[in-house]
Amino acid sequence: MQQFNVSVCISKGPEGQLSCHSELSDEFLKQPLITKLHVLRAVSENLHQVAIVGEGNTSSEFEGEIHAKVLIVPNQIGLDIDLSRTLKRRESQEIKACLLAAEKYLQSVIGVMVETQISELNNGDISE
């Protein structure tokens, strides 16, 4: 059994754009590439299932996080996804937009990991 955390930090600046970056635990970063890909895909795909009950805060700027506690047992990935208090206080449509932005961000991270791996294989940088 393995357990680690994956967080996506989301912020909305004065121009109204949502931006994301990730915080990945050291335990996660030590995992083999295939495990990382499966975990990021599972988190990304499960963001649709997060219950959305916003409190209606519509201030122009904010920062918040989506936390995923990941538990891996043989042939299964268990997830516990939680939104930071800052995100929970936003209005529901904005929370949905944040979840969508996080999903797209994680999918782009997966793409970069795959491209990097392919590039390393093509350059012979990985020993077999």
Concise synopsis of the structure shown:
Helices cover 42% and strands 30% of the residues. It is α+β, with helices and mostly antiparallel strands.
Explain the overall architecture.
The structure is a single chain. This protein starts with a strand and ends in a 5-residue tail after the last helix. It has 128 residues and is of the alpha+beta class. It is globular. Strands 2-1-3-4 form a four-stranded antiparallel beta sheet. It has four helices and four strands. A hairpin with a 5-residue loop joins β1 and β2. The longest helix is centred in the last third of the chain and has 32 residues, at 92-123.
- Following the backbone from N to C, one meets helices and strands in this order, namely EEHHEEHH
Mean pLDDT: 87
The number of helical elements comes to 4
Low-confidence stretches: none
**Helix content bin:** 40-55%
Structural class determined from secondary elements: alpha+beta
Main pleated sheet: 4 strands, antiparallel
Overall outline: globular
Relative strand content: 25-35%
Features:
single chain; four-stranded antiparallel beta sheet; 4 helices; alpha+beta; 128 residues
Please describe the topology of this protein:
Layout lengths: L1 E11 L5 E7 L1 H4 L3 H14 L15 E12 L2 E8 L1 H4 L3 H32 L5
Antiparallel strand pairs: 1-2, 1-3, 3-4
